[in-house]
Amino acid sequence: MRHSIFSLVRQAFAGNQGWPRQWRSPAPKRAYDMIVVGAGGHGLATAYYLAAEHGVRNIAVLEKGWLGGGNTGRNTTIIRSNYLWEESQKLYEHAVRLWEDLSQTLNYNVMYSPRGVMMLAHTQHDVQSFQRHIHANRLGGIDNEWLTAEQAQAFCPILNIDPTLRYPVIGAALQRRGGTARHDAVAWGYARAADALGVDIIENCEVTGIDRDASGTVTGVQTSQGAIRAGRVGVVAAGHSSVLMEMAGVRMPLESYPLQALVSEPVKPVMPCVVMSNTVHAYMSQSDKGELVIGAGTDAYTSYSQTGGLHIAMHTLDAICELFPVVRRMRMLRNWGGIVDVTPDRSPIIGKTPVPGLFVNCGWGTGGFKATPGSGHVFAHTLATGEPHPINAPFSLDRFRTGRLIDEAAAAAVAH
Amino acid sequence: MLVIPCPYCGPRPELEFRHAGEAHIARPADPSVTEAGAWAEYLYVRSNPKGRHIERWRHASGCNRFFNCVRDTVTDVIEATYPAGEARR
Fold this sequence. Notes:
The structure holds 2 protein chains of 2 kinds.
Chain A: H1 5-13, E1 31-37, H2 41-54, E2 59-62, E3 78-79, H3 86-100, H4 102-106, E4 117-121, H5 124-139, E5 145-147, H6 149-155, E6 171-175, E7 179-180, H7 183-196, E8 200-202, E9 207-212, E10 218-223, E11 226-235, H8 241-246, E12 255-264, E13 274-277, E14 282-286, E15 292-298, H9 310-323, E16 332-342, E17 349-352, E18 358-362, H10 372-385, H11 399-402
Helix pairs in contact in A: 2-7, 2-10, 3-10
Chain B: E1 3-6, E2 10-13, E3 18-22, H1 36-43, E4 52-58, E5 66-72, E6 78-83
Antiparallel strand pairs in B: 1-2, 3-4, 4-5, 5-6
């Protein structure tokens, strides 16, 4: 059923009892042309673009848990493209362009809201770093502008710019086209659209091994629901990428850390934008439900525990209370963790691996949500053609050997 | 928050320590003749296991010494700590 004002009205008069299931729940076939491991946003987007743009429809997306239950459902939904280097700007801007009409493309409301992302500068070093980003972005054709502290407060009225703060706000970089989207809807929208094109999305199907023939080429995967053959396998497994790649004997330049977020009780609209601060480590926005969505930092040590240390969240709340005194007496409702796979240069790895037929899309670290459509789009190209798209060519696994790193440690925003 | 048993000072809260990455990674003896792949392996590639993991910590707010720690990365339970330089456990 296509979603439209007419279907909405018709279902409303029918008591909303007639909505069909949004995607099938098929049993896995014995063989597919391609397998995508991981039904998060990036994996589902990959499958959708493979089916929609490359005509590859005999695909399975294998998910060990439930659809969108990993970092896709755990992140703070921030979208922006104001990265420092040309390679990153092209990648993230590609994603922002796809975000802009994603709801129409998928016929599913992903609630993309370009409400502006403001990054606060608290020290002279921040000012220089952000202005460098602004100049680099201007050369790359990406909007990013400098605000004074007063202008920053005008853009976000609850921001405290008192100069006596321990880390006073002395300016900000604003990307007006940045914003947020509904993370669950992104996974559901891609799943529904991919399913409609014939893609099998198989939940509760954990990949336990990667099969290879005598020449080393990938022939399929072993799963908790039996062996499935495929000519090409794309691993899109976020925090578990190292574990999956190890099954094919590939060691990765990745470390997995818990990253936390928390939400407050819902309140009326108080915050019209996203505010981030690398220096005091806090970022916050308000969801459409009214909850304040707060992102904390990663733990100091690698872990797969999907929880973070309480002191990490406390540190962020200290900073939030200082920057936004109005929220000091609010209650936090939920606090959770996800496992993020961090690369040495804080840029993702999207492309081929030393194993023929095995492809990987990982290393998004603390900031992968914003790239979901672009990541899926270029990875689908890579899987379909066997070669990277020009946009993801610089993000090869090989760059760690050649030394052509793409250092985005300053743009990545989350302290790690 | 972890409680980490420093081999020199005894159990202390995690806040006193700095994590220093995977343990037992040896710098290639002669970088000038080390092939790029091996150098990349030393600099960037990490085992990142889900389960038993050996890592380095530094007791920054205590004795300030490095030591090694065996920890399970799923449960975060610490199996043992031992001085740097000792054989891998």
